[in-house]
Structure formats: C-alpha cells, structure tokens
Write a structure and sequence with these properties.
The chain is mostly helical. The chain has one domain. The chain contains 13 helices and no strands. Helix 9 runs antiparallel to helix 10.
Length: 299
C-alpha cells in the first residue's frame, strides 16, 4: 500500500535537514587535518549508533527493520555516496563537492522515470542539461580547472540518487529511525574495516585517505561529536522527507544545501564563490524549480 504523501511537511524536513548538513559539513576541514576518512566514519558512527538506539528505545520509537535486504541495499548506495562525499571534503571546497553530490536530484528524475516507466518531457530533459552545466560551473571556478578528478563528487551524486529512489521504492513502511541507525551502522562497519586495514598497512600520514589510526586532539573530538549529533538530526529529517513525500518533487529541495553550504563557508571562513560559481548556483536553482513544476504535473 502506498504511504500517504505530505508535500508541505516533506519540504520542511528536507530544507531543514539540508541547512543543518550544509553548515556542519564546513567544519570537516578541522577533522581532516588529524584523522583519516575511515577513522572519522568509524568514530562518528561509533558515537551516533548508540545515541540513536538508546534515545529511540527511551522514546518508544520503532527501531525494527521490517525488510532486511531492501534496507541493506538502500543503505549500501547511501554509504558509498557518503564515503566519496566526505573523502572529497578533505581536498575540495564544500561548494564544489556539494555541487557534484547534488547532481542527484537530476539523476533521481531519470532513475525514477525508468523505475516507474514514465516518460520524461523535452522541457525537463533540457532543464536537466542546464542544471548539469550549472554544476560544472560551480565545480570549475572553485577547484581551479575542470578535470576527471573534479567529477569524482558526481559519482557520489549517482549513488545518492539511487539511494534516495530506493528509500521510497523499497523502504515504504520502514520508520525513519530504523533507516537512520541501520545506515549509520553500515558506515561503522565500513569505517572499521578501513581502520583495521590502515592499522596494519598505514599509508602516508599526511594523506587524509591513507593515514593510519591516530588519537585525535580535544578540539577534533569536539568536532566529531558535533558532526555525529547534528548529522543524525539532518539525515533523519531528510529520510523523513523521502518517506512522506513524492521522491522526484522532494529531491529538488536538496539543491538548498548548495546555498546553505556556500553561505556558511563565506560567513565562517571567508570562502567565496567566483562569478561563474554564482551563475552555476543560479542555473541549478532554476533547474530545480522547473523540474519540480514539470514533475508535479507529469503523468
């Protein structure tokens, strides 16, 4: 049976979740200088999973996963996306990484159309192309020149898109909290595997991706805790949005993270987008509006 859709509430949850993540992810630069990507995910999830499970039990939330394999498949897509996303944050400005990740709403449109066997009109196809051009404009001026490496965040966007569609198609009836803790638990497992490997085979200690286990400073511990707590809230809001909203429509509001992340980077660290970057965000925003309207009325 189809889950009841609440468009207004789903937009609220999506925009709020994206605002939280857009701000908190800016502080990854303080974490990446000391610990590896793998240690970050392991430690953050080691904090987050018990917090959400204990709080959920005390609050009487439904933590049970009703269908293991669909939830696991959905979580695999999102886990892969987040490892690529956070890996890129150690090297690229957040606006560039977010622009690559949030090609996902356009990709969601294509994936959902194939999945649901719906045609995509010419206007939405043309608009999707404009949105991709906007993404390239945000990537290129911030990183200093477009190359294959700059497109790595787009691979995160592809996995993220599959995960978002799977949330609605495979996981109807699952509670948002069960999806949240199981997703974080999978991040814990993969982070732990990376930590164990690098413990016995440490790489370059100056490299965020290959650094072995280190004991973080007190300041980094604070940032990890803040990341764990606020990411739980933000991701929980996003999952709730997908559970109660129409996937193609709700996904458009993920573009808001570009705005929140860019404003936070400017206010907190003085990181500014160049003129082409602002044009790119404008194109991405227009893309979101047009696709939202056309998707809502699509048969």
């Amino acid at each position: 049976m189809e889950q009841k859709t609440n468009t207004v509430a789903s937009i609220f949850f999506m925009v709020t979740g994206m605002a939280i993540l857009g701000i908190i992810d800016n502080f990854m630069k303080f974490i990446a200088v000391e610990i590896s990507l793998w240690q970050f995910h392991f430690v953050r999830s080691f904090i987050a999973v018990p917090v959400i499970v204990i709080f959920g039990l005390l609050a009487g939330w439904d933590l049970r996963t009703k269908r293991l394999w669909p939830v696991l498949g959905r979580n695999m897509f999102l886990t892969g996306a987040m490892f690529v996303y956070f890996g890129c944050l150690g090297f690229f400005p957040i606006a560039a990484v977010a622009a690559g990740l949030f090609t996902a709403p356009v990709l969601v449109m294509f994936i959902n159309a194939i999945w649901s066997r719906r045609a995509i009109g010419l206007i939405r196809l043309a608009t999707a192309f404009v949105g991709f051009i906007g993404t390239i404009l945000v990537l290129k001026p911030d990183v200093g020149g477009l190359s294959w490496a700059n497109l790595i965040p787009v691979s995160a966007g592809l996995m993220y898109a599959f995960g978002n569609v799977a949330t609605r198609k495979w996981c109807e009836g699952e509670s948002a909290v069960s999806l949240l803790w199981s997703y974080m638990f999978l991040m814990l497992i993969f982070g732990g595997l990376g930590v164990v490997y690098l413990y016995f085979n440490p790489g370059d200690p100056s490299n965020y991706l290959t650094r072995g286990w280190v004991w973080p400073s007190a300041g980094v511990w604070v940032w990890i805790w803040l990341q764990a707590v606020f990411s739980l809230v933000g991701i929980g809001f996003i999952m709730k949005a997908y559970l109660i909203g129409e996937v193609t429509y709700v996904s458009i509001f993920e573009y808001s993270m570009l705005i929140f992340a860019s404003i936070a980077a400017w206010v907190l660290f003085g990181d500014r987008l160049g003129p082409l970057g602002f044009v790119g965000i404008g194109l991405i925003t227009i893309t979101g509006i047009v696709i939202a309207i056309r998707s809502k009325n699509a048969i």
